[in-house]
């Protein structure tokens, strides 16, 4: 209970202090509020009091293309999921949310906008290159992510060697302290961590058995916003703006056609 009480207070403070993005234009038009978990660099992170990153730039491009006003607020992961589910204050959530059949039972999604997979981060030379290599090791993941699902399937959901954290930052810290042998997280997040910590003697490995995933903007069930932003997403993907944003934050060219073909 204490954990939840402190978390809720922290979330409220973050919401109060970290609101950012396009503000109400004063035109009287509806302002769509989006929630995010800005602890997922380079996809979304805080720069002082502003949310920046791939998802922030992408949402900005989509909402401009759709001609809609919006506001992006850092709420944290669990409050984002709950608030979008409620469908009252927030019209949607954008935070590298993979589209899964399980989540589709609770949420609607926009059209896919980003292709990803999970990557294994470990000490260089550890030989931990596949999920099966991790079966009897200590592994950290962010709770309720697809990395959590994949490693739960391999190690067992109740395996105490599978450690779940509220953020990947905490999972990385756990590995730095020697608490786990590896971290499993989205390839963009692991890649950014490797780039920022070249002195830590780490390596990232892609297990080809880990499935390809696609991110979508999270929407409440029955949201009419989907019909407004899906055409805008397609236009942004095809316009070259998407590749510009991708190269800025991910550092390479995207496979746009894979994203356009994703369902």
From TrEMBL:
Gene3D superfamilies: Periplasmic binding protein-like II. Residues 31-252 form the Ionotropic glutamate receptor C-terminal domain. It comes from the Bacteria. Transmembrane segments: none annotated. This is Basic amino acid ABC transporter substrate-binding protein. It comes from Cohnella candidum. It holds the Pfam family SBP_bac_3. GO terms for cellular component: membrane.
């Amino acid at each position: 209970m204490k954990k939840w009480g402190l978390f809720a207070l922290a979330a409220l403070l973050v919401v109060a202090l970290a609101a950012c993005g396009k503000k109400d234009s004063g035109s009287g038009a509806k302002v769509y509020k989006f929630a995010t978990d800005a602890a997922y660099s380079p996809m979304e992170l805080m720069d002082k009091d502003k949310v920046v990153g791939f998802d922030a730039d992408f949402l900005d491009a989509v909402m401009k293309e759709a001609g809609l006003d919006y506001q992006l607020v850092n709420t944290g992961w669990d409050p984002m999921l709950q608030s979008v589910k409620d469908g009252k204050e927030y019209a949607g959530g954008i935070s590298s949310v993979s589209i899964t059949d399980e989540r589709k039972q609770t949420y609607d999604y926009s059209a896919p906008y980003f292709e990803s997979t999970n990557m294994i981060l470990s000490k260089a030379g550890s030989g931990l290159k596949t999920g099966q290599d991790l079966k009897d090791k200590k592994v950290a993941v962010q709770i309720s992510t697809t990395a959590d699902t994949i490693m739960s399937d391999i190690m067992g959901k109740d395996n105490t060697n599978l450690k779940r954290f509220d953020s990947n930052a905490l999972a990385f810290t756990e590995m730095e302290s020697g608490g786990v042998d590896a971290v499993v997280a989205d390839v963009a997040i692991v890649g950014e961590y490797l780039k920022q910590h070249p002195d830590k003697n780490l390596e990232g490995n892609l297990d080809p058995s880990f499935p390809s995933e696609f991110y979508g903007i999270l929407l409440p069930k029955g949201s009419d916003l989907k019909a407004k932003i899906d055409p805008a997403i397609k236009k942004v993907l095809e316009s070259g703006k998407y590749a510009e944003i991708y190269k800025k934050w991910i550092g390479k060219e995207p496979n746009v056609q894979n994203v356009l073909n994703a369902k």
